[in-house]
């Protein structure tokens, strides 16, 4: 299983970005069985949980710091999970990584850099 994130970049405070994470090495049926999550790691800090989406697409859960601003979603037909990020703040600056989890097995992508700065 390989995960590839994209969509990061430099954005001004208050702006938006949509991150994508594409899973390869899985059939569509298998991907739909995975719980998908987004995490982030800022410089000098521990990696932290951002959002998770169940295999069926609902329920979803968010870290308090992003609740109401970020939305996680998935398209099982495309083996893809998304993170829509609105009202971005400088403290959202981090490397964002996705994780696929199924029956105790976890797979991580390399991450994509998000920088929020004026």
Can you describe this structure?
With 118 residues, the chain is mainly beta. 3% of the residues lie in helices and 53% in strands. The protein has one helix and eleven strands; from the N terminus they run βββαββββββββ. The strands form two sheets. Strands 2, 4, 5, 6, 9, 10 and 11 form a seven-stranded mixed beta sheet that branches. The chain has a four-stranded antiparallel beta sheet with strand order 1-3-8-7, with no helix packed on it. Strand 7 (70-75) and strand 8 (80-85) form a beta hairpin. It is globular. It starts with a strand and ends with a strand. The model has no long low-confidence stretch (mean pLDDT 95).
Keywords:
4-stranded antiparallel β-sheet, mainly beta, 11 strands, 118 residues
The major sheet is characterized as:
7 strands, mixed
Question: Which word captures the global form?
Answer: globular
Radius of gyration, CA atoms, in whole angstroms? 14 Å
Overall pLDDT, averaged?
95
Tally of individual helices: 1
Structural class: mainly beta
- What string gives the helices and strands in order? EEEHEEEEEEEE
Strands, total number: 11
Strand content: over 45%
End-to-end separation: 37 Å
Oligomeric nature of the chains = single chain
Helix content: under 10%
Uncertain runs are: none
Give the topology, please.
Blueprint: E1 2-6, E2 9-11, E3 17-24, H1 28-31, E4 35-41, E5 48-53, E6 60-62, E7 70-75, E8 80-85, E9 94-102, E10 105-108, E11 112-116
Parallel strand pairs: 2-11
Antiparallel strand pairs: 1-3, 3-8, 4-5, 4-9, 5-6, 7-8, 9-10, 9-11
